[in-house]
């Protein structure tokens, strides 16, 4: 008899916390965001709660709004290696761009993390959404959306081929005869695409997981198609159950259309919980954070989403609904976050200040204020009703926000039989319930000729 379906839960690390004013709150520790011990403590908290993984986002450029927010800018694979040394089971998911890396060096970075952690690595595949990065890499302009995804497909194909280029039994390790590896089981990949050329083979064997878990976060048409073909876990942002259900069904269908098992594609929306002993206490905590926001920062963030200046709008006046007339629907390319914001405006008719507060919590991800039981209830509702396979937990502040979630919400989910009480495996694939992929040479012996 198969075991009951269980949640996947990741801790999304954002240096001071996911609320934009977290660094100003007395419960946060912004002075520690360049300290390895800080992230190791977060990792140990996540592992003690038996979470699947920690996840670290990244972008290869300095944000223009750094004046009003604290962001570490630390390179995530190196950072997660530090966390790996302080943990034994916790998954380690890092963001890396297919636009601003080359396949061979990125394959080496993640392969090394997976080997040294005993099979706990995951790669969050992004194409990079900001044009601020282009000049940092000698480019005159940032490639457009379609071109970035075309390159991304080639990039992932090349990286996975490199990871597959050693068959699982390529290492002989025969000390008596002096044979370490069988060269006949190590293959060039001879990858040649429109954007990328990679000969191979790779310079290291397959990792404990076969290769790291492939993660993705795009919600546009291109992003969904990409996820359906490649992603084993998908991070997404939704405000309402029905929107999450629509996205969930679409991704599972797309995966099936590519000949994949939909059960091997984990859909993980973000949730940013303010937790209190009572609902009012939780809402009061949320208000404390919102009162610390700097409107200039929030307006810049909102203008980046909307693509136009909003400085003429009074902060306490209503947001004009027609501002979002061109937002399109949820499937329009590259505009998923704009559509989330448009939905909030159309349903709630907030003031500008109110909208800035709504977005301050987690940049368009779902913010929920309530008791531990209420947080567990909403997680269970989405999980049981075809909206999520789990969640990216986005604490409003670190480290305390994660500690409260781990100490109060996780035990409720465990009592309900929705979440593990102990790890049953050692790799990230084990935690997510994903199979270890075979090398393509093992699947298709003719390719090894």
Describe this structure in words.
The relative contact order is 0.16. The chain has helices at 36-48, 76-86, 103-117, 145-164, 221-230, 241-257, 279-290, 295-306, 336-348, 352-360, 372-384, 400-415, 428-432, 440-443; strands at 8-13, 53-56, 91-97, 121-126, 171-174, 179-181, 191-192, 197-198, 213-216, 233-236, 266-275, 366-370, 390-393. The strands form three sheets. Strands 1-2-3-4-9-10-11-13 form an eight-stranded parallel β-barrel, surrounded by eight helices. The protein has a two-stranded antiparallel ribbon with strand order 5-6. It has a two-stranded antiparallel sheet with strand order 7-8. It has 14 helices and 13 strands. The chain is globular and about 80 Å long. Helix 5 (221-230) links the parallel strand 9 and strand 10.
Keywords:
449 residues; alpha/beta; TIM Barrel; eight-stranded parallel β-barrel; two-stranded antiparallel ribbon; 14 helices
List the helices and strands and how they pair.
Blueprint: E1 8-13, H1 36-48, E2 53-56, H2 76-86, E3 91-97, H3 103-117, E4 121-126, H4 145-164, E5 171-174, E6 179-181, E7 191-192, E8 197-198, E9 213-216, H5 221-230, E10 233-236, H6 241-257, E11 266-275, H7 279-290, H8 295-306, H9 336-348, H10 352-360, E12 366-370, H11 372-384, E13 390-393, H12 400-415, H13 428-432, H14 440-443
Parallel strand pairs: 1-2, 1-13, 2-3, 3-4, 4-9, 9-10, 10-11, 11-12, 11-13
Antiparallel strand pairs: 5-6, 7-8
Helix pairs in contact: 1-2, 2-3, 3-4, 4-5, 5-6, 8-10, 11-12
């Amino acid at each position: 008899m198969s075991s009951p379906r269980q949640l996947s839960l990741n801790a999304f690390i954002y240096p001071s916390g996911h609320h934009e004013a977290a660094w100003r709150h007395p419960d946060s520790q912004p002075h520690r965001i360049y300290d390895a011990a800080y992230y190791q403590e977060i990792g140990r908290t996540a592992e003690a709660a038996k979470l699947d993984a920690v996840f670290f986002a990244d972008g290869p450029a300095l944000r223009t709004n750094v004046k009003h927010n604290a962001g570490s800018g630390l390179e995530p694979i190196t950072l997660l290696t530090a966390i790996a040394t302080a943990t034994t089971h916790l998954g380690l998911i890092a963001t890396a761009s297919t636009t601003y890396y080359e396949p061979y060096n990125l394959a080496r970075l993640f392969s090394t993390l997976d080997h040294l952690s005993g099979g706990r690595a995951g790669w969050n595949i992004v194409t990079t959404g900001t044009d601020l990065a282009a000049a940092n890499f000698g480019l005159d302009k940032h490639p457009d959306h379609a071109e970035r995804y075309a390159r991304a497909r080639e990039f992932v194909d090349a990286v996975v081929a490199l990871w597959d280029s050693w068959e699982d039994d390529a290492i002989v390790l025969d000390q008596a005869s002096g044979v370490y590896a069988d060269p006949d089981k190590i293959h060039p990949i001879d990858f040649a695409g429109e954007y990328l050329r990679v000969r191979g083979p790779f310079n290291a064997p397959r990792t404990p997981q076969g290769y790291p878990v492939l993660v993705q976060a795009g919600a546009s048409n291109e992003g969904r198609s990409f996820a359906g073909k490649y992603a084993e876990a998908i991070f997404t942002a939704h405000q309402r159950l029905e929107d999450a259900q629509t996205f969930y069904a679409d991704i599972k269908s797309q995966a099936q259309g590519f000949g994949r098992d939909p059960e091997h594609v984990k859909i993980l929306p973000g949730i940013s919980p303010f937790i209190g002993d009572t609902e009012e206490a939780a809402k009061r905590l949320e208000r404390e954070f919102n009162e610390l926001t700097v409107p200039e920062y929030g307006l810049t963030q909102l203008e980046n989403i909307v693509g136009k200046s909003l400085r003429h709008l009074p902060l306490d006046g209503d947001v004009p609904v027609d501002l979002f007339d061109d937002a399109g629907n949820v499937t329009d390319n590259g505009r998923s976050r704009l559509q989330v914001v448009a939905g909030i405006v159309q349903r709630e008719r907030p003031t500008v200040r109110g909208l800035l507060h709504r977005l301050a919590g987690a940049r368009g991800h779902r913010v929920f204020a309530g008791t531990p039981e209420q947080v567990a209830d909403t997680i269970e509702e989405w999980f049981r009703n075809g909206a999520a396979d789990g969640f990216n937990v986005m604490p409003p502040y670190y480290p305390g926000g994660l500690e409260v979630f781990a100490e109060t919400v996780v035990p409720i989910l465990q009592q309900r039989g929705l979440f593990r009480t102990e790890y049953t495996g050692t790799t990230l694939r084990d935690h997510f319930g994903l199979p270890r992929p075979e090398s393509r040479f093992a699947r298709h012996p003719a390719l090894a000729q």
